[in-house]
Write a structure and sequence with these properties.
It is built from seven helices and no strands. The protein is mostly helical and 164 residues long. It has one domain. The longest helix is centred in the first third of the chain and has 24 residues. It is elongated. It starts with a helix and ends with a helix.
Length: 164
């Protein structure tokens, strides 16, 4: 059952990424990131029943792998992070909150608080991971220093954009 859910997470992540016109060469990596995040979530939930902690741990894993893939594939981080995190977003919790708000009123607060906790865990996981120094993900690459002609071209571009 866990393998089937992981495969479906892969397909859902790739399908969602197609909506954003992600390059085809990156779809497999985005799918693996989303599937890995969902598999981590499922494994954590099988040992510990806390959905909030499972969301946090799997979000940290997705964000770390997104940073590594972004550096390795020379793509923006959001390409991998948005696709990878989509399976972890509590869409059912948001739906249930709105449904309870319309129909019952009182139980809406409980579902809203639970959904907000999950969303907070996702946000904190992303923020903590993105606050790590970028040098940790460079794999021994030295930062490129610009030559004097490249510095002049960069200054011209900055000044041209300010004038316009």
């Amino acid at each position: 059952m866990m393998f089937l859910q992981t495969a479906m997470a892969f397909i859902a992540t790739v399908s969602f990424s197609c909506l954003f016109n992600i390059p085809r060469s990156e779809l497999i990596y985005i799918g693996l990131t989303g599937a890995m995040g969902w598999l981590c979530y499922q494994i954590f939930m099988s040992f510990f029943p806390s959905g909030i902690a499972a969301e946090f741990v799997s979000t940290v894993l997705v964000a770390l792998s997104s940073r590594i893939l972004a550096r390795w594939r020379k793509m923006p981080l959001t390409v991998f992070l948005l696709g990878g995190i989509i399976c972890l977003v509590p869409g059912a919790g948001m739906y249930n909150t709105m449904y309870a708000l319309i129909s019952q009123g009182q139980s809406a607060f409980e579902t809203a608080v639970e959904t907000a906790k999950i969303l907070g865990a996702i946000c904190i996981g992303i923020i903590l991971t993105l606050s790590l120094p970028p040098e940790w993900f460079s794999y021994g690459q030295k930062p490129k220093s610009l030559s004097s002609s490249q510095k002049e071209k960069e200054k011209e571009l900055v000044y041209d954009s300010v004038e316009n």
